[in-house]
Every structure is written in structure tokens, then in C-alpha cells.
Amino acid sequence: MADYKITLPSWQGLSIRYSSDLHSNLLEALEEALEQERMQIEYQCRQGYCGSCRVRLVKGKVGYPCKPLAFVNEGEILPCSCHPLTDIEIKL
Ligand code: FES
Questions:
Q1: What is this structure's pTM?
Q2: Domain range holding 51?
Q3: Measured from the CA of 68, which atom of ligand 1 is nearest?
Q4: How many independent structural domains does the chain possess?
Q5: What's the pLDDT at 37?
Q6: Does residue 40 line the site of ligand 1, with CB under 6 A?
Q7: Cβ(55) to ligand 1 under 6 A?
Q8: Domain harbouring 73, CATH code
Q9: Per-residue pLDDT tens for 30-84?
Q10: Is 44 in the pocket of ligand 1 (CB under 6 A)?
Q11: Does the CB atom of residue 58 touch ligand 1 within 6 A?
Q12: Rounded to 5 degrees, what angle do the CA atoms 70, 30, 53 make?
């Protein structure tokens, strides 16, 4: 079991939890928390193809069980295809 803190300073400093027991990827943790705040995150394919879920990783590290096909710039991640390896800070 892995449990990490996800901080979103651009969204009023919102801080949420990622748990490998509850979430299969970072997008699931973001959706769950943002739904409670009545906010949404963009996504389409949920499989690393389209790039629409792309966000900026400000601090920390993430891992990809399978290499995604979508293009990402330096410092960007695809929440639908990755999971935190440390506490992270992201900018939506
Ligand atoms: S939703 Fe398509 S790459 Fe994440």
C-alpha cells in the first residue's frame, strides 16, 4: 500500500490523498477529490493516447506502469496513466 499527498496550490491550496488501495491512477484520485469540491479535470481516453489530461508536475515524482503514447513536454505528466511515487505538487 502506498499513500501520498497531492497538493494543488493553484486550486486554493487544495490537498488530497492518493492511495494505491483505492486508486489505480492519479486521475482517479483527482476526480474523487475535485468532485467533492464541484470542480472537474479534463480527460478523454483515460489510456495515455490523447494527452487531454496533461498537467504540470511542480514537485515530486510519478511512475508509469506502461509508457503512454501521448506527447508531454518536460515537466508535464498524464494523470490517467501514472501514479505518485512521492508526495507531489501539481498545477492543473
Ligand atoms: S485522458 Fe487521454 S492521455 Fe489521459
A1: 0.94
A2: 3-91
A3: 3
A4: 1
A5: 80
A6: no
A7: no
A8: 3.10.20.30
A9: 999 888 888 888 999 999 999 999 999 999 999 999 999 999 999 999 999 999 9
A10: yes
A11: no
A12: 20
